[in-house]
Amino acid sequence: MGICFFNDDQVKRFQPLTLTRPMDDLRVGVLTIREKWIKSLENSEFSRLLPDYLNGVFEKGKVEGNEEVLWLNSRMLPSQSFLGALKALQEGQKLVFKGVTVAAKVNAKSSAKMFSENSFNDAGLDTIEVKEVIHLDHLWDLLSLNSYEIEKDIQLLGLKSISEQKEEIPESVYHPKNTFIGKDVHIEPGCIFIAEKGPVVICDGATIEAGSILRGPVVVGEGATVKMAARIYDGTTIGPVCKVGGEVAGCIFHSYSNKAHDGFAGNSIFGQWVNLGANTITSNLKNDYKNIDVTDWITKDLIQTGRQFLGTVMADHSKTAINTMLNTGTICGVSSNVFIDELSPKVIDSFTWLGPRGPAIYRFEKAIEVMQAMMKRRDVELTDDYKRMMKHIFTSR
């Protein structure tokens, strides 16, 4: 049986992060949403519906006309109860949670048609109500669920703690039964791992430089680096090939992003290829201690988050200069440069050059030149398809 991810209208709430990726590529916990489902369903093959401008940058896959397809709403996360409901699902049925279709099993012919038309249609399917599904409604739900998903992903991946591996346990590891260290990990002297209240996960090929303190739940992704004397607090995921230092609390870094220097990042989400200059600070708490409102990326309406702590959401390839101050609940788009000497505005559009004289459009050719230089440093090619994706985002800003 094939697997195909589809989106509903609420996926628009996850812009600007989803301007450059499908919803299933968002990271929460150790894994991306797609990786969670592939592991949970033990199926390495998948397909997805994609906006045309993301084709070539991301794999769309195939839906053949000879097998039924399990369609999965990409805002949903696997759980034991949900997997049980999926197992019982019959062809021609859909699972519905609070009026939203979360999954459907569709015959081969209809699935092939929907895939070719790049549009999911659940009309005519029999409805089965489900009472509970772990789901994402807003960007900040990624932060709310991150610690929980870290623990789930450890079980899903079958990771063994260092106490189970029967290796010598350093004195600086507190609660080794809750500490997970992968292969070819380099840990320099003076590091402290505190896993009393949540797991510490260090993935293959990661480096923890001298004097760093990590308090779980924390994930350091494959090939990532925690810089010298960093303080990484609970609820943080540092994605693959990131470099992160200074003080970080309750954040998600997707991959290839850098916060290599001192400065505070709290309750924030960063996409790929982000670079935070030295002493960049994200405000994550209002002076009056009231809940934080954010601006909807599309409608520009204010949304009540119900959260007292929320920092910055910054999409791919955006950068800050040294000593940048990011406002509480700031939403920053794709490929923007922020180098002001005052608190940032709450919304920074994609391809914005934001300096002391106010915002200007970041020239597309110059932005691509900088992207190419940064990606080349990590031996990643900036392809023609990637340029076309960025051109679409630029012209649609």
From TrEMBL:
Pfam families: NTP_transf_4 (PF13562). GO terms for molecular function: acyltransferase activity; nucleotidyltransferase activity. Gene3D superfamilies: Hexapeptide repeat proteins (2.160.10.10). It comes from the Bacteria. InterPro entries: Bifunctiontional_GlmU_bac-type, GlmU-like, Trimer_LpxA-like_sf. Keywords: Acyltransferase, Transferase. This is UDP-N-acetylglucosamine diphosphorylase/glucosamine-1-phosphate N-acetyltransferase.
